[in-house]
Design brief:
- The structure is a single chain.
- By secondary structure, the chain is α+β, with helices and mostly antiparallel strands.
- It contains two helices and twelve strands.
- It has a single domain, classed as Beta Barrel (FomD barrel-like fold), CATH 2.40.380.
- Helices cover 27% and strands 45% of the residues.
- Strands 3, 4, 5, 8, 9, 10, 11 and 12 form an eight-stranded antiparallel β-sheet that branches. Strands 1-2 form a two-stranded antiparallel ribbon. A two-stranded antiparallel sheet has the order 6-7.
- A hairpin with a 4-residue loop joins strand 8 and strand 9.
- It is globular, with a radius of gyration of 16 Å.
């Protein structure tokens, strides 16, 4: 789950592209660069989890799926002026595990090499079978009921979720193709960078 609970109070969680606070990761490689996809500009990154303390398996609201293990790779995308954060997860053989869209307060680029966001609970998942799922709407409602988020944020999440879901119904293949293209491209750039060190 991408939220924390403290004394049963929902807390908005900050996440960044480098995932430096994730103690599960023992060894990793990271690269980021600017991206433009249609009219949207932002930053795209690749994390390769070379060694982890233990595999991580989560539920995507339909079934359990392993999203982190030795050699697994995450492509992450943060666009300017958008209220979602995309993570495309791959296994050690570059097979797509799932696309995961966090609905967020905003994407912030104070450190251009390591953007961050504040996760607002609701998520959209595109499974490896290309089914589109909406997850954790109950957590959004709980956060609103507890005054963790404002009415304006609640409404924004609902609107963004609906718009993104409808977009993915028509364009999920294009998004999957984009992520796979950058997976290969960033792996090549990372290899060249490492080779010349």
């Amino acid at each position: 789950m991408l939220f924390q609970k403290d004394l049963d109070v929902m807390i908005v969680k900050r996440k960044d592209m480098k995932n430096d606070e994730w103690f599960r990761i023992i060894e990793k490689r990271y690269i980021s660069k600017p991206i433009q996809f249609n009219v949207d500009k932002g930053i795209i990154s690749l994390n390769i989890w070379d060694k982890v303390t233990a595999p991580l398996t989560v539920s995507n609201s339909k079934y359990d799926v392993k999203i982190a293990d030795d050699g697994y790779k995450w492509i992450q995308v943060a666009f300017e002026n958008r209220h979602f954060w995309l993570t495309a997860m791959y296994d050690d053989k570059d097979n797509l595990i799932e696309l995961y869209f966090d609905i967020v307060r905003g994407n912030y680029f104070d450190d251009i090499d390591n953007p961050y966001c504040y996760d607002l609970f609701t998520d959209i998942v595109v499974t490896k079978d290309k089914e589109i799922l909406i997850a954790d709407e109950d957590e959004l409602q709980m956060a609103f009921d507890e005054n963790t988020i404002a009415k304006e944020e609640y409404d924004m999440v609902k609107k963004t979720t609906k718009e993104l879901y409808n977009y993915l119904l028509q364009n999920k293949e294009n998004v999957i193709d984009m992520c796979h293209k950058y997976l290969q491209e960033l792996q090549d750039e990372l290899y060249i960078r490492t080779k010349h060190k």
